[in-house]
């Protein structure tokens, strides 16, 4: 999910937003995956991948103070002769291969965004056009890191509904779950931030950041780590959730970087960056699961200025940077 806005109240959903997202991330991405495991929205979604992909099942969780290595009991060795060749998701955090210095959103020549219409149908048109550009920037970056890729799905939500990770409410921020963004059109048209195309682009970029986390295996690793910590709402679990959400915010900044080279007006880019600075945890919220608005602003600008996934390694950041 996306970082929350001040007027939206606490959101505890999956984890996307992973929630990171997790899962994803969307803004409070935490949902129960089963009766005894709370995890990110992307945790169980690997079944939707092509079976030609293979996945690492060794989870390494790295924080500023401890490192825990755990091998899943479900790990099975497959004969090399029958194992397909292809990119694979890696279930890891700080030491994930996506954090290599050469992984960044790739430049594109232009992005043909339609004129903004703030109706649900108008938001749908704008977001789908923007996703074409974001996908074009990230697909080669994922290939460079030898990570699997599939296009994200978009569903515009106009009333409360059930989705694979629980319930999505039309008056709350968007949700990410298992390869799809659930965009809550009434929330964005009616919240108390200015109705500007940059708000929509910036929030979409954050949700897509959860998609990158889900594709790569980061959301699954985050969900595993939260489970090992005793749940997402423990002090350690909330720390992991903030790292997940702030990384999605940083990835969102990376998505904006190539667009600033003439693909779309800078006014839209600047507004998208500024919007991140009003989203996050406020004192009245019961859980600090997304990071303060100041931290969201810092990470989105860090991703934008560096356009390197290595710069978005929130899993290795100091505690003050993910407060």
Briefly say what this structure is.
This protein is an alpha/beta fold and 323 residues long.
Describe, in plain words, how this protein is organized in 3D.
The chain is an alpha/beta fold and 323 residues long. The strands form 4 sheets. It has a 3-stranded mixed beta sheet with strand order 4-3-5. A 3-stranded mixed beta sheet has the order 6-10-9. The protein has 7 helices and 10 strands. Helix 5 (235-259) crosses helix 7 (293-306). It has helices at 120-144, 185-190, 197-216, 218-228, 235-259, 266-276, 293-306, and strands spanning 30-34, 37-40, 54-62, 67-71, 88-92, 153-157, 161-163, 166-168, 175-177, 180-184. Residues 56-85 are annotated as: Disordered. One of its GO terms (cellular component) is membrane. It is a single-pass membrane protein.
């Amino acid at each position: 999910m996306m970082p929350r806005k001040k007027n939206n109240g606490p959101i505890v959903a999956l984890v996307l937003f992973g929630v990171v997202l997790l899962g994803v991330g969307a803004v409070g991405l935490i949902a129960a995956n089963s009766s005894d495991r709370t995890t990110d929205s992307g945790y169980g979604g690997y079944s939707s991948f092509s079976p030609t992909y293979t996945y690492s099942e060794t989870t390494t969780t790295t924080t500023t103070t401890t490192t825990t290595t755990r091998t899943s009991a479900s790990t099975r060795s497959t004969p090399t002769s029958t194992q397909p060749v292809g990119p694979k998701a890696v279930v890891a955090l700080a030491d994930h291969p996506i954090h290599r210095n050469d992984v960044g959103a790739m430049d594109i020549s232009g992005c043909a965004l339609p004129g903004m219409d703030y109706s649900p149908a108008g938001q749908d048109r704008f977001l789908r056009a923007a996703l074409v550009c974001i996908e074009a920037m990230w697909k080669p970056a994922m290939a460079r890191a030898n990570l699997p890729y599939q296009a994200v799905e978009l569903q515009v939500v106009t009333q409360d509904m059930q989705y694979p990770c629980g319930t999505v409410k039309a008056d709350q921020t968007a949700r990410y779950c298992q390869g799809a963004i659930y965009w809550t059109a009434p929330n964005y048209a009616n919240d108390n931030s200015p109705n500007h195309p940059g708000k929509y682009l910036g929030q979409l970029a954050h949700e897509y950041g959860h998609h990158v986390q889900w594709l790569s295996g980061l959301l699954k690793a985050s969900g595993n780590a939260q489970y090992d910590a005793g749940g997402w709402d423990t002090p350690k679990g909330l720390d992991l959730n903030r790292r997940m959400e702030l990384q999605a915010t940083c990835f969102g900044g990376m998505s904006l970087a190539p667009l600033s080279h003439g693909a779309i007006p800078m006014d839209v880019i600047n507004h998208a960056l500024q919007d991140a600075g009003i989203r996050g945890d406020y004192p009245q919220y019961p859980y600090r699961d997304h990071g303060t608005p100041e931290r969201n602003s810092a990470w989105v600008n860090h991703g934008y200025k560096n356009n390197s996934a290595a710069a978005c390694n929130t899993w290795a950041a100091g505690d003050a940077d993910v407060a």
